[in-house]
Amino acid sequence: MIEKFPQDRASKRKMLLDAVTAIGDTLKASGARSEELGTLAPEAVTALRDSGMFRLKLCNEMGGAEADPVTEMLVLENLAYHDLTSGWCTMVGATAIASLGTFLPKTGLDRVFGGGKIPTGSISFFPAGRARRDGDGYRVSGRWRFNSGIGHAEWVIGGTVIEDAEPGQPQVMFSAFPAKDVTLYDNWGGVTGLRGTGSADCSVDNYFL
Question: Which of 41, 104, 177, 180 has the smallest count of CB within 10 Å of its CB?
Fold first, then answer.
């Protein structure tokens, strides 16, 4: 397991690409099982997590690789060469975790990354949620589509419009929910090719955030 990434760009890129090679056989073997399950196979999730792939875009301060864009593309390309589903879920999962590490306030960081643990996540950028202020938080309702990797995610992020924001341009925020608190919809079964990404819908109703 990668505990710390080097700061030098070339060394970091080599470490990440070597890690992809090391898990390549596991990812290749997992492809058919992911398609059968309709979500990323557990062995692929473990390999990606332990090799640091979900930390690809996370900032250094939070224990991530903070890889440059070229390195990101090379890593994702090589993952997809071994298993397209694993490459896709890494792209989405790494974006979700980087977003949590970048935009959450201190109280949120303490909750999501408590004890130095880096969780798994899924993200849907489209602002399908609606929020209204309620005391020191928000009441959020919405249904988000195409949440790739949600089957193994511990946190789910969805774009949300704040309905009672100041007049002018709509104010959009990312809402982060524990995955156990969202409702999942088994509507991904008929997909061809990327069925293993498990990109199902999820929703919350009047959730206090």
Answer: 180
